[in-house]
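Appendix B. Raw example, untouched.
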Amino acid sequence: MNKMKDYDLPSVRLTAGMYALTKLSAAGLTFILVSIFMLGHGHEGGVPDGWPVSVPYAIYAYGLPAAILADALLRMFRSTSLSPALVLYAVAGYGAGLWLASEQGGDAISCGLTGLVVLLLFRLAQVAGERYPLLLPVFALFVPLLCLVLF
């Protein structure tokens, strides 16, 4: 006789969907904050001075996979506190910056340090999104599209 496992499939789907929405929201909020920072500093065509790619490309193509990898490692080590998460995100951010520098051409040290700062900002944006879940769709969808149109 086949025995059914007691999985609650809707809650698994809901959890996975909320995780994806939280990640996209954190990326969107990070994109907004970096774009606001860029307003006061030099940039040409959406690319900051000394940076090989545009900000949305760097955040979504390099930062988001590094953050997902950091979350997977945190889940493997069963860590729930903020300080190990920040350390792991800092290491993943430096790695994402080195990855960007190796693929797009750029100074490895400056790209690594910028990746470190951006991924720490990403983690803090994710924590903020988890605390205020009603803002998740706004920062995941609407505000990044608005920033792409404006900047």
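End of appendix B.
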